[in-house]
Amino acid sequence: MSILIDKDTKLVVQGITGRDGSFHTRQMMEYGTQVVAGVTPGKGGQSFEGPDGKTVPIFNSMDEAVAATGANTSVIYVPPAFAADAIMEAADSGVKLVVAITEGVPVQSMARAHAFARDRGVRVLGPNCPGIISPGKAKVGILPAQIVAEGPVGVVSRSGTLTYEAVFQLTNLGLGQTTCVGIGGDPLIGTNFVDCLEAFEADPDTKAVVMIGEIGGTDEQEAAAYVKAHMSKPVVGFIAGRTAPPGRRMGHAGAIISGSAGTAEEKVRAFEENGIAVARRPIDIAGLVQAALA
Amino acid sequence: MNIHEYQAKERFRAAGIPVPPGEVATTPEEVEAIARSIGGMVVVKAQVHSGGRGKAGGVKLAKNPEEAREHASRILGMEIKGLKVTKVFVTPAEDIATEAYVGVLVDRKSQCPTFMVSSEGGIDIEEVAATKPEAIRKLKVDPRYGMLPHQAYWLANTLYDDPALVKQGAKVIGQLYTAFVDSGASMAEINPLISTKAGAVKAIDAKMSIDDSELFRRPEVAAMRDTSDEPWEETKARDAGLSFVKLDGNVGCCVNGAGLAMATMDLVKYYGGEPANFLDIGGSSNPDKVVAALEIITADPDVKVILFNIFGGITRCDDVANGIVEATKRIDIKLPIVIRLTGTNEEQGIKILADAGFSAFTSMDEVVQKAVELAKA
């Protein structure tokens, strides 16, 4: 099994005709994801040319796309100015999961969009995230499919390339993954570490979890407490930003030490105090997972 | 993006908050003239993107225009937390009866704008939270409804006993929420919000941080950016679309992805080196970005070695390698460059780099150790 997406995922791509949207739609289709519809206002009735002669119908709105195709998941590649509204449109359309890749969505707009989606019982992943891949089943987002393999490890992370680094090592050690989830680098995200840990704990095929955090906020600290209280499966952790100066944004909008809160040290301590093995170097992550599964 | 006190006061004034008048000056002569036109006692305040201006001697009370001029000549040019003061704000001194604190920021956990108010103003709110938490009242604002009048009143009630002051305080709290939303702020703060002996509530200080993601739709706020007290490298990096933070070490880092960039800095430190910077070059293989990154890194005289750490995911390693080779042809670099390239098409990528004469690695651990070794040589 896997979490959040699988072979039954029927995906609609919001912003399918844009540069990023069209490139990644082809990649997702090549991986075998069922892309059933695209949405670009004003281009309804046209169709998107996918790989191997496959085509995807384009609709003007999410409402029409879901009504016509029965899509249950959406992925968003629209520009920052329109992304929050696209999330709310998706949340009103009947899909259950909305994956928002877009980086740079205003935080106040996201505060409204998250509240809107929560009221409708719709899960948002991101924004500013690389998406999610369940090896051998489906991929939604921009994660590189070449580096993953099927297997027993669940991966959840706030970062993109650092996740690829960890996943690549796992795969090279023969440790495949049930699902890899990038939850995003923004301060306000729809799905957090605890949500993913809960899902991995409930998934019978997941035998161990890798959790990759970074400076800023308290998500990792809450996740650590959750691990101690509720997880039976081993969790291996890594925290980026031990050398980050306070008060400076380190690339991700959410990666900032505010005052004395959100430091790498306090997160590492929370992990260690709650039974999570912490990798000091990225190269140690896969080895710790191997040891935990032995 | 942080804005200055005088700029935050403009935003506050536009929202209707009572803010005493004042003007910005860059020379002692201007300060004297402004003080003369204001008349009476004035305050001369350093305008830098930093807290602790008062403690550093950057805020001074002057009895007359001559004294204002003297203060200005000392404050202009001084450094506060490493930032050089080039502007001062001159404003009338107020007859203060009480000092309160009113602030709002976007809380990550509740995902709502959250107000914090306290009757203990004029000092750092973190200090109040630590020593007298009962003096603080908090409120989450539902961003869909905004600040409701009874909520503002409930907050103001904790600041004052006098109903006339409570009424004014509630109005200011509602107006601060308006300024916060209309400016696309991530944080807005009045500390202190004073009441005068004559019974008027006024904001005599103002602090505001703007969410960078809001700037594209708020040109009037974006125009408030003042780069005069930031390192030029950070200005250039922002213009080139790179994420860059200057640090004190000698290993120049050039990495794709923010998380991997932080992890690379951490690993440099782990092996006994010191990173010179944080730099996220993004997901593209565009040589222009690599050129801009190299120009910024090599301008730092402390840098002894340049370390690339690239994970080719969607971007293929051969593309990235070609980008690096192309960029290093365009700019003359004397420093050693070590490159780690792994992921999709890594064999081709490594070959391209090796053919161009670079030491290329596939292991992050090895390349970082090599970089630290070269930096120490």
Description of the structure:
The complex is a heterodimer of chains A (294) and B (377). Chain A contains 9 helices and 14 strands. Helices cover 34% and strands 23% of the residues of chain A. Chain A is globular and about 55 Å long. Chain A has 2 domains: 116 residues, NAD(P)-binding Rossmann-like Domain (Rossmann fold, 3-Layer(aba) Sandwich), CATH 3.40.50; 150 residues, Rossmann fold. Chain A has 294 residues and is of the alpha/beta class. Chain B is an alpha+beta fold and 377 residues long. Chain B folds into 3 domains: 156 residues, 2-Layer Sandwich (D-amino Acid Aminotransferase, Chain A, domain 1); 73 residues, Dna Ligase, domain 1; 145 residues, 3-Layer(aba) Sandwich (Rossmann fold). In chain B, helix 2 runs antiparallel to helix 3, helix 10 packs across helix 11 and helix 11 packs parallel to helix 12. The mean pLDDT of chain B is 93. The interface between A and B is large, with 60 and 49 residues.
The pLDDT mean of chain B sits at 93
Looking at the chains present, what oligomeric state does this protein adopt?
A: heterodimer
The amount of beta strand of chain A, in percent, is 15-25%
What share of residues of chain B is helical? Answer: 25-40%
What's the architecture of the largest domain in chain A in CATH terms?
Answer: 3-Layer(aba) Sandwich
Number of helices of chain B: 13
Extended strand count of chain B: 19
Q: Alpha-carbon distance between the termini of chain A?
A: 21 Å
Q: Which outline of chain A best applies?
A: globular
Specify the biggest β-sheet of chain B.
Answer: 7 strands, antiparallel
According to CATH, the fold-level topology of the largest domain in chain A is Rossmann fold
CATH class division of the largest domain in chain A:
Alpha Beta
Quantity of strands of chain A, as a count = 14
